[in-house]
Write a structure and sequence with these properties.
Length: 438
Amino acid sequence: MDMITQAPRGTLDVLPEDSHKWQYIESTALSIAQDFGFREIRTPVFEHTNLFQRSVGETTDVVQKEMYTFEDKGGRSITLRPEGTAGAARAALEHGLLNSALPVKVSYVTSCYRYEKSQKGRYREFHQFGVECFGAAAPQADAETISLALLILKSLGLENVKLHINSIGCPTCRARYHEALRAYFEAHKDELCGTCLGRLERNPMRILDCKSPVCHELAAKAPVMIDYLCDNCAAHFEAVKGCLDAAEMPYELDTHIVRGLDYYTRTVFELVAPNGLVVAGGGRYDGLLQELGGVAQPGLGFAMGLERLLMVMEENGCHFPPAPKCELYFVSMGTKAVQQCFAMATKLREGGVAVECDIVGRSLKAQMKYADKLGARYTVVVGDNELETGVAQLKDMTTGESEEIRLDDSLYTTLYRKSLDRELAGMTNLFGSVAEIG
Ligand code: ATP
Ligand code: MG
């Protein structure tokens, strides 16, 4: 089999016809997060392996089965990031971000790498939009983070995504829960998968997140953390729910959410699409920064799977802005015309107009055909005659109508005025329909 022209399993190419959708999703998410005070952070694709072992957790599926780990030429163990929180936390500690005013709020768009069985909505390279908020302990921080995730989805046209929340407590109340869980799974020891047998002693909560069907079935009937919360954790959870209620944000208590990463404490949540896919997940991780050798500061965040988000948006008929189109195509005939068109295109491009001209050497007819294929809004044919008179025909490709224009700086003004007219017409339509509704 020819491997050279085939991407590795579990990876996706974003082709030019779709890239504007990605740009739209990413810029929408980043800009809404910015309104909440989150500023973008960019961290490396690879980190030292022990960063993820420490933060994500030794007993998790991610660390035990899914990481892309290799030794670099200097003999270091390196891992491609399986998620974004660890790198953001590492960078925040390394650069002392927590030494200034708290909280510190960061956002990111990153690629992530997990060696998983590839299937619908599950890839080996995937992308996340995520945020992290360091140094905010109050329950309203949890509600704010959740509301950010919801607002991003709403702004993208997804209002039918369900919010599932749970609390998985703190190390104090969890000790008692671990005992109950151990006792439960101990009684079903023969049925557990090999990995979970090992987890039984070290971290029985991880069994709840196991994907093997038998463990999954056992987990469904296991004791739930919410029944074991200490007073502080219970009060925190009540206060989070109080904020969500006050803002009329509907949620469902899902006592089975445990999340696949070890660092979570207290509030955890998932956003579930109508097709059942989890498009975002997150929660609080009050022990993480200290676990990484940093300050004892709380933290929380979420990550949204962008491939899943795009898939769900398409399934739900969400609106995307149109793909960018060519505004003006210069059809040129003859060497002089080619040069003149190139000069005019250069000027117009400096002014921010989307202009193209022939760079293949096609015939007049073939250039017109190509301009049509591009979806160019206008064409101008420039030949000897037009060069001589300095006047040409600006053809509107949608109506087929032509008007006379001068081949000088006024071309820019003409195009600009036309784009303003269109924008105005669009606004009139919009306000017209708003008036109808109102
Ligand atoms: P799942 O339970 O589906 O495996 P997870 O708990 O491992 O998800 P997180 O680590 O919380 O996922 O990552 C946050 C989001 O990233 C998920 O909600 C999902 O949208 C997305 N995601 C996670 N793993 C993948 C993957 N292999 N391919 C595509 N998207 C993914
Ligand atoms: Mg997973």
